[in-house]
Every structure is written in structure tokens, then in C-alpha cells.
Amino acid sequence: MASSRRDLAVRASVDQGLLSPAEPVVALLDTAGIRASAAALTSAFAAVTDAPVLHAFAVKAAPLVPVLRLLREAGLGVEVASPGELALARAAGVPPTDTVLDSPAKTPAELRQALALGIAVNADNLQELARIDALVASAPTASPLGIRVNPQVGAGSIGALSTATATSKFGVALRDEGARKAVVQAYLERPWLTRLHTHTGSQGVPLALMAEGVGEAYALAEEINRTVGRQQIDTLDIGGGLPVNFHSDEETPTYAEYARLLADTVPGLFDGRYGLVTEFGRSLLAKHGTVLTRVEYTKTSGGRPIAVTHAGVQLATRTVYAPDAWPLRVLAYDSEGRPRTGEVTVQDVAGPACFTGDLLAAGRSLPLLHPGDVVAVPDTGAYCFAHHYAYNSLPRPGVHGFTVTENGDGDGGEGGDGVVTFTTVRKPQTLAEIVAESGGAHADALVG
Ligand SMILES: Cc1ncc(COP(=O)(O)O)c(C=O)c1O
């Protein structure tokens, strides 16, 4: 169980001095959980199709080289959307053949590099396609090439993450006047365009809407192949977007549910005529990351108890700025890392940044926190602690992977007695690094 592994890891973080007054915030990654999610993804699609499927992890969800290496070992590729993400993927040893480049603003240099390496590229728009035309004409490439389309099927509950709205910035907006015809024509004129891509959105988009977006892309691929008179599009990239449950430890919805829904609603997708690419991010990592922070002080303000911790906007930026869309659970432990019991009190859990809204949770019912207690923030493995926001020059925390091994009693740590081993995924940022990254070498740049 992920929750018993987490309890063991919290206790061990305190026992082993990972979390301490000197190091009051750390991030943990449950390697067994990540492996289990990767296996669940792979088997969910293997259960509905014999077609080749590349599961390309969306690097933006957890841009950490050791995470990419772990997922690579589990048989996954990567989806990258910037030169930085591509550099991380290469550092992790992911081969170009299992790398997909999507981004709405690729420069000529990025495109040239991708085509030289043989990385799959999805053109975001027809202007980008014209750049690719020139590159394809100038040198042979092994890159599988496609176009991203926006099926314009509508938004989910979080506007900022809904990519298939009528006016989304991503892809060719298929329902705009003349757009569909232009896309079909683009394939007719370019026999080397063999892929079609869509990503309907992320957190907040219901499975049925995701499947509708995929269905639209499939229908377009069929139309294009019919028009061209051959199976020119041989691979459909259906994007990522499986939402994550931030309210409990339950991992719902599942990849298996989504794969079955696709099999029911777009059966031709899985009949073997198309290879597939998926680009899941959040659903592979979110549940397997936990931020731990010590409570530095407690106080009351206007009668409301407040626990001031070291985890706030720098780690959970979306939660702090948009708390209704991005609620996070907060778990209370005592100073030795044991689950805190005691009377439940409505309280705020605040971060260290210098603005009032820097709250991990407002008005949350929890056992009353005390100075030195440990607060755990689960479900933070994607788009959270790996996406540091440098407010107040707060340092990036260390990230540690953990594994739990049996204590010889055969219960795999379920009885709360396994041995926890930590490995460094990323060291904490030092003050010297903060100064260096803040123009420390150019102190005189604006004077004299
Ligand atoms: C093109 C593309 N693919 C995949 C993803 C990953 O989405 P998620 O993390 O929700 O699975 C995103 C997220 O923004 C994306 O833009």
C-alpha cells in the first residue's frame, strides 16, 4: 500500500536526519509506486490492442533525470516540449527513436536538431510545417513527422489546462473555416507526413471528453488515408491527460478504464492499422511524490490556528495561486514522524513566503499541529516540487527516492516495519547557487 510506504518514509526521514531543523523541507518519490503506475499503463493498453504503443512520458510533469531513467527502464519513452526537456531526456539515455517533440513555439534550430537526431516531431501549425518542409528538402531525416490538431471538443473544469477549446493556442483548430481541408491537403502534398497528434487536455478534462477528442483525430486520420488512397498515417499520437484524484490515496480513474473506454468508443483505433503514442505525465507521477516540511511556528490570528511551515508557493505554486482548482491534502505527523492523533481543529497550514495567500491549506480540519511537527503533502510528484518557483529566493529542496524492503516478516513493510532506503534524486539548492543564478557574477552590471 502506498500509504503505509509513505508512513514508513516519513518516519525514516526524521530518523535518518533527512528532514531536520537545518533541512526543514524535502521531497520524496516512491519508486515502487512509479514503477507500478508505469506497469499499469503498459498493461492497460496491451489488454486492448496488439498494435505497437510508445508510452512517451510527458517530461514537463517531472523534469528530473533519474525519474526519466526509471521510466525508461520500465519501457517508456518521453514527450519533450523544450530544448531543456530534450536535454534531460538525452541525459537520462532515452533514445531519439522513443522521443517525441511537441511544443507550440519550436525555433528553426530546435526543429533542425530534432530532425537531425531522428526525433518524432508534431508540427503545431502550418507555418511550422513550412519550416519542416525546408528541412526535409535539405537533408534526409529519420524523424516520424505529424501535425497536431485541436478537435475543439470543449473544455474541462480547469480552463488553463483545457487544450481543445474553440480558441486554444495548440494545434490546428480543426473546426475553423477551411482548416480541415487544409490539413487533408497538407498530407496529400507530403507523403512523409505519417502521424497525427491530439491532446485534449489535462487535469479536469473528463475521460469521455478525452475519448471524444481522440475519436475526432481518428476520424480525420481515416479521412486522410481514404483521400490519399493508402495508409499514409500509420501512427496516432493520442496525448496524455488522465486526471488524478487529489482527494484520497485511491488511484482513480485508471489507465485500464480509459483504455477500455477508447476501445468502446473508437474501436478502429486498436485494430492494428495504427501504431499508437501516448503522452501521460501527471497520472504517472503525482501520487508518488510527497513533500515533507517541519512546522516552524504555530500561532493564532483572528482566532484561527495557523501552522507556519517551509512548504508553500515555491513548491505548490498552482495550489497557492488557484487553491480551488488545485487542492492538496495535508497529513499531520508528530516531531518523530508518527501520524499525529489528537483533537481535530480547523487550522491554516502556511508556507514561508512573504504574502498572505501563501497557504498550503486554509481552514483545514487536522489534529492540532505543534512546532517541530512534520506536515506531509502527498500527490505532489507531478507539476509541483519539480517545478520550483523562486519567490523570496527560497531554495529548491532536495528530492529523494525511497524504497521499502521487507524486515524478514514477509509482509513487505505492510505492518509498518519495513526498512526504508533513500537515494538522492536532486540535491537541495545551496545559497551559493542562489546567488550565482541571481546575477552574482555580474554584481556591477547596473552601476558605473
Ligand atoms: C502535448 C501534451 N502532451 C501531454 C501532456 C501531459 O498531460 P498530463 O500530465 O495531464 O498527462 C501535456 C500537458 O500539458 C501536453 O501539453
Notes on the protein architecture:
- With 448 residues, this protein is α/β, with parallel strands linked by helices.
- The protein has two domains: 180 residues, Lyase, Ornithine Decarboxylase, Chain A, domain 1 (Beta Barrel), CATH 2.40.37; 253 residues, Alanine racemase (TIM Barrel, Alpha-Beta Barrel).
- 29% of the residues lie in helices and 23% in strands.
- The chain has twelve helices and 18 strands.
- Strands 1, 11, 12, 13, 14, 15, 16, 17 and 18 form a nine-stranded mixed sheet that branches. The chain has an eight-stranded parallel beta barrel with strand order 2-3-4-5-6-8-9-10, surrounded by seven helices.
- Strand 5, helix 6 and strand 6 form a beta-alpha-beta unit.
- Helix 5 packs across helix 6.
- The N and C termini lie far apart (62 Å).
- The mean pLDDT is 95.
- The site of pyridoxal-5'-phosphate has 17 residues, from helix 10.
What is the total number of structural domains? 2
Bound molecules: pyridoxal-5'-phosphate
Using the coordinates shown, work out and report the CATH topology of the largest domain.
TIM Barrel
Share of residues in helices: 25-40%
Secondary-structure element string: HEHEHEHEHEHEEHEHEHEHEEHEEEEEEH
CATH class of the largest domain: Alpha Beta
Gyration radius, in Å = 24 Å
Shape: globular
Largest beta-sheet characterization = 9 strands, mixed
The N- to C-terminal Cα distance equals: 62 Å
Mean pLDDT: 95
Q: Mind telling me which CATH architecture of the largest domain this is?
A: Alpha-Beta Barrel
Estimate what percentage of residues fall within beta strands.
15-25%
- DSSP helical segment count: 12
Poorly predicted parts: none
Looking at this structure, what is the CATH superfamily of the largest domain?
A: Alanine racemase
Count the strands?
18
Class by SSE composition? alpha/beta
